Task: inverse folding
């Protein structure tokens, strides 16, 4: 007797973050940066908190480049609402990141200042990160 074919159902709306970053995984502007090791959604508020921490520690010296932008809208239904009746209202925006993606780059400060500034900025993010340095960097 023929067995019915098993059908795999999966959510399609929110997208999948499989694999490593295919673009945005090399330093392009600065000499130092932070690179993600995990995948996650990073909100605009988290990005702004990271930017403020980095700029404060650098005492507004040097330059920073934020390499991601929160352009994916996230919706949510209000609390205690029944199923159906359409999609919820937009709650905020996120930037989906995969492992290997460069989040922020820094130029114009010493190695020690850049490392500490990016460490403080990385604490504001929900992902594990790694400090990276340009290959041709000399003190």
Result:
């Amino acid at each position: 007797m023929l067995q019915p074919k098993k059908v795999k159902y999966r959510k399609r709306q929110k997208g999948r973050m499989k694999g490593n970053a295919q673009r945005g995984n090399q330093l392009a502007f600065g000499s130092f940066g932070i690179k993600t090791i995990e995948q996650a959604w990073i909100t605009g508020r988290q990005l702004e908190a990271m930017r403020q921490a980095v700029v404060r520690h650098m005492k507004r010296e040097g330059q920073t480049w934020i390499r991601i932008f929160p352009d994916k809208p996230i919706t949510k239904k209000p609390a205690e609402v029944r199923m159906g009746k359409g999609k919820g209202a937009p709650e905020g925006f996120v930037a989906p990141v995969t492992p290997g993606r460069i989040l922020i780059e820094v130029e114009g400060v010493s190695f020690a200042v850049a490392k500490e500034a990016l460490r403080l900025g990385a604490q504001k993010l929900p992902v594990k990160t790694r400090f990276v340095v340009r290959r041709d960097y000399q003190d």
Observations:
- The CA atoms of residues 10 and 109 lie 47 Å apart.
- The chain has a mean pLDDT of 91.
- The beta strands are 32-36, 40-43, 63-66, 72-76, 89-97, 102-107, 129-133.
